[in-house]
Amino acid sequence: MPGIARRVVLAVALALPALPRRARAASPLPGPVTLILPYAAGGRIDEVIGLLAAEAARRLGQPIRVENKPGRRGVRAIAGLVAAPPDGRLIALLPAAAIRTALLENLPFDAARDTTPIIGLAGSAFGCIAKAGRFPGGWAGFLAEARERPGALSYGSAGQNSNGHLTMARLLLREGVQAVHVPFRGATHGVNALLAGDIDLMAGPAVIGEAVTAGEAVWMHVWTAQRLARWPDAPTLRELGYRLVVTAPFGIVGPPGMAGGIVATLHDAFLTALRSDAVRALMLRFDMAEDHRDSAAYAAFLAESTRMEEMLIGRLGLLP
């Protein structure tokens, strides 16, 4: 078996012979599919996409190999996709961060134009926490102290220009308060700094909520449309008066110029997988919510996301 970065979903390959001949012959794809995953092996998204690929392969009648190719927030993975043959044998997971990175680095890449959108899948939950007891008044308490002590408070995120960073910057800009941004190399380092008292808030993916579960931190707010099932007491931004929902949406794209029949086949296979009991249960455990879009709707979403990202980072003065 190859290394982790080029692994085959073995369970899929073993399961395929049990599929009916008609199911195996129905696929217009010329052979096995490689799904590029722009994250390192071993994380939550890696586990979800591995299971999703296994379930989709059963419907597709072809093995799906997941190839981990981390780097540059997804841009590296997508760059290798753009020039690939549009036969459906090479596809990639597109994280929203790739759109932002391309804009920030002034790269000649447009997600809606330079790929074939196949399916929008889901979004990961985000939010902001404080050390337990630090702000008895919650988010309002933080804002009150920030107004009394301009620039004295700080918030961490899982990296410069991450969802956590830009969403907090947007909230603070709206409130007219200042706080120092402290980027970390991952959410875990930020949570450790928060609990040590080195920063006042930590914004990031819902995994930071494990500190809440442990009784060491409290949610200031979550950024989903509805409250999270695991933390029903955490208010949403909407409940606090902000017309804002922020997740980390992701979907699957292929090279430009893919035929409609191939796109439909892949879409249907991944939609079936997305709605399988196993995938739904795993996504719920990892605080991910289904956000299905078909090819046309996903293309429109990517175009609108690019426009909104450009507007946001321009407003924050981050455009090159």
What's the count of strands? 12
User: What gyration radius follows from the Cα positions, in whole Å?
Assistant: 21 Å
- Residue fraction in strands: 15-25%
Which fold name fills CATH's third level, the topology of the largest domain?
D-Maltodextrin-Binding Protein, domain 2
CATH class type of the largest domain: Alpha Beta
* SSE pattern, N- to C-terminal: EHHEHEHEHEEHEHEHEHEEHHEH
Q: Count of helical segments?
A: 12
Low-confidence residue ranges = 1-26
> What is the CA–CA distance across the termini?
43 Å
Helix content: 25-40%
- Largest beta sheet, briefly? 7 strands, mixed
Structural class: alpha/beta
Keywords: Receptor, Signal
Family: Belongs to the UPF0065 (bug) family.
Protein name: Tripartite-type tricarboxylate transporter receptor subunit TctC
Organism: Neoroseomonas alkaliterrae
Give a structural overview.
- This protein is an alpha/beta fold and 320 residues long.
- The protein folds into 2 domains: 6-122 and 250-315, Bordetella uptake gene, domain 1 (D-Maltodextrin-Binding Protein, domain 2, 3-Layer(aba) Sandwich), CATH 3.40.190.150; 126-222, 3-Layer(aba) Sandwich (D-Maltodextrin-Binding Protein, domain 2).
- It is 40% helix and 21% strand.
- The protein is built from 12 helices and 12 strands.
- It has helices at residues 10-15, 21-25, 44-60, 75-82, 96-104, 138-148, 163-175, 187-195, 210-213, 260-274, 277-285, 295-315; strands at 6-8, 33-37, 64-68, 90-95, 116-124, 126-131, 154-157, 180-183, 201-205, 217-222, 248-254, 288-293.
- The chain has a 7-stranded mixed sheet, with helices on both faces. A 5-stranded mixed sheet has the order 8-7-9-6-10, with helices on both faces.
- α7 (163-175) links the parallel β7 and β8 (180-183).
- It is globular, with a radius of gyration of 21 Å.
- Residues 1-26 have low confidence and may be disordered.
